[in-house]
């Protein structure tokens, strides 16, 4: 399967849209993107997918727009030119002598603006496809070269009257009136971090970079992303939350190359992995090297069994004692902890 469409909804309603798309009996996979209100669909063919959605629009209450995708490449101007060129060559019989426009929708940070890219690609097409006798017409075009950028990934399509962005206007009107989807906590884990925030609000103030180890499905990340500029969520599992400032590093924490994948001083480390106590604390300490002085670590100790909790805590403390600059600030039992869990708050000195 390949990416066939970006699908948008009102931010906060992504889980609802994903749920209703997943019910459709067509071969597809629906994934989160790091951007609010945008999901991506993988299937076999963008034309089929678009037609299927058009025919079943009455079953889709949360879909606002569907933007069909034909080619995917890295967000790099030379790569984009190459892929635009491939699409034009593929469709040259249909577009000969016609007028066109280039449009770019960009999400993320880049060293060019959308307008600059539109001009570069427009000029590239005129210069390189003189034989097709194409003309630019910004308003009344016959075909549109559509470029969707999601940070480092770019999706390119050529639209015409039949193959174009599909909008469900009734949903736009209806969702405007709906209050923001009021999420319940994603899971019990989320209640742990919410409880901590009430007891120790200062730990969560002025956060630039947070590293959350063992993030899936994303209860902690969801809460932390509202407090921090950027949250690195490390987990080989999927996240059920998305936001512009969440970077999902989809691997085990032991395989993360800090310098390559994060390379920032950390303001808060959180670890809620379901690993054995010693393994888990060693992972926390791997990242503690990059924690700023006077900043905190929130670490859930998950004892092997209820009756080993004391023994497990002692083992963890003996590992911590080897690190002079990491001090135990508090050990608490949160209401949301299971009977095997303790929450350890550490502070770097
Ligand atoms: C209890 S869940 C975490 C729940 C999460 N805090 C939340 O709020 O949704 C434990 C997670 O730890 C992850 N995990 C286990 N071993 C890991 C490792 N070595 N590196 C990163 N994540 C790991 C698992 O994949 C699992 O998703």
Automatic annotation (TrEMBL):
<dbReference type="InterPro" id="IPR050102">
    <property type="entry name" value="tRNA_sulfurtransferase_ThiI"/>
</dbReference>
<dbReference type="GO" id="GO:0052837">
    <property type="term" value="P:thiazole biosynthetic process"/>
</dbReference>
<dbReference type="GO" id="GO:0008168">
    <property type="term" value="F:methyltransferase activity"/>
</dbReference>
<feature type="domain" description="THUMP">
    <location>
        <begin position="51"/>
        <end position="160"/>
    </location>
</feature>
<dbReference type="GO" id="GO:0005829">
    <property type="term" value="C:cytosol"/>
</dbReference>
<dbReference type="InterPro" id="IPR040183">
    <property type="entry name" value="THUMPD1-like"/>
</dbReference>
<dbReference type="Pfam" id="PF01728">
    <property type="entry name" value="FtsJ"/>
</dbReference>
<dbReference type="InterPro" id="IPR004114">
    <property type="entry name" value="THUMP_dom"/>
</dbReference>
<dbReference type="InterPro" id="IPR029063">
    <property type="entry name" value="SAM-dependent_MTases_sf"/>
</dbReference>
<dbReference type="GO" id="GO:0002937">
    <property type="term" value="P:tRNA 4-thiouridine biosynthesis"/>
</dbReference>
<dbReference type="GO" id="GO:0003723">
    <property type="term" value="F:RNA binding"/>
</dbReference>
<dbReference type="GO" id="GO:0032259">
    <property type="term" value="P:methylation"/>
</dbReference>
<dbReference type="Pfam" id="PF02926">
    <property type="entry name" value="THUMP"/>
</dbReference>
<dbReference type="InterPro" id="IPR002877">
    <property type="entry name" value="RNA_MeTrfase_FtsJ_dom"/>
</dbReference>
<keyword id="KW-0694">RNA-binding</keyword>
<protein>
    <submittedName>
        <fullName>THUMP domain protein</fullName>
    </submittedName>
</protein>
